[in-house]
Design goal:
Blueprint lengths: L4 H31 L5 H6 L10 H28 L5 H23 L6 H24 L4
């Protein structure tokens, strides 16, 4: 497995994306603390009282960014792993992985910093291209065996 250059590349970019998701989770927690907006009554009680058991628009924005990551990065993890087994060109595969990774990083930055439209939408769309490409290649490779 460690001899598969494509899989190593996939592992590298996947790990960057997982770390990015951890960073978004940490940012969400920090915004929650700074805004005193807690999702659970016991957390609110520990941090000033039940009046802080509430939602906050900034916390919700962070949560939406994190949820969007889960909706997009988890499928990429599956597609990229299977695609790596198809013996694609290492250069082409790396391009797929880089485009997705950079697209997701830009998407998160645009989401959290509330950058002007259509920055976030373009980043989302660009990141979807390699996923569709990998999915199509997986289908083409597996259809004869169906």
């Amino acid at each position: 497995m460690m001899e598969n250059k494509v899989f190593l590349s996939f592992t590298f970019y996947s790990t960057i994306l997982i770390l990015k998701m951890y960073v978004v989770a940490i940012i969400t927690g920090q915004v929650r603390l700074r805004k005193k907006a807690f999702a659970n009554p016991e957390d609110a009680l520990r941090n000033g009282g039940l009046q802080f058991y509430r939602q906050d628009p900034d916390v919700e924005r962070c949560r939406r960014a994190h949820r969007n990551d889960m909706e997009n990065i988890f499928p990429f993890l599956f597609l990229g792993a299977v695609y790596s087994l198809l013996d694609p060109s290492p250069t082409v595969a790396r391009i797929h992985f880089i485009i997705f990774c950079v697209g997701r990083i830009v998407h998160t930055i645009a989401y959290l910093l509330q950058l002007r439209a259509p920055t976030r939408s373009v980043a989302y769309g660009v990141a979807q291209l390699p996923c569709f490409s990998m999915a199509l290649q997986i289908l083409l490779a597996t259809t004869p065996h169906w």
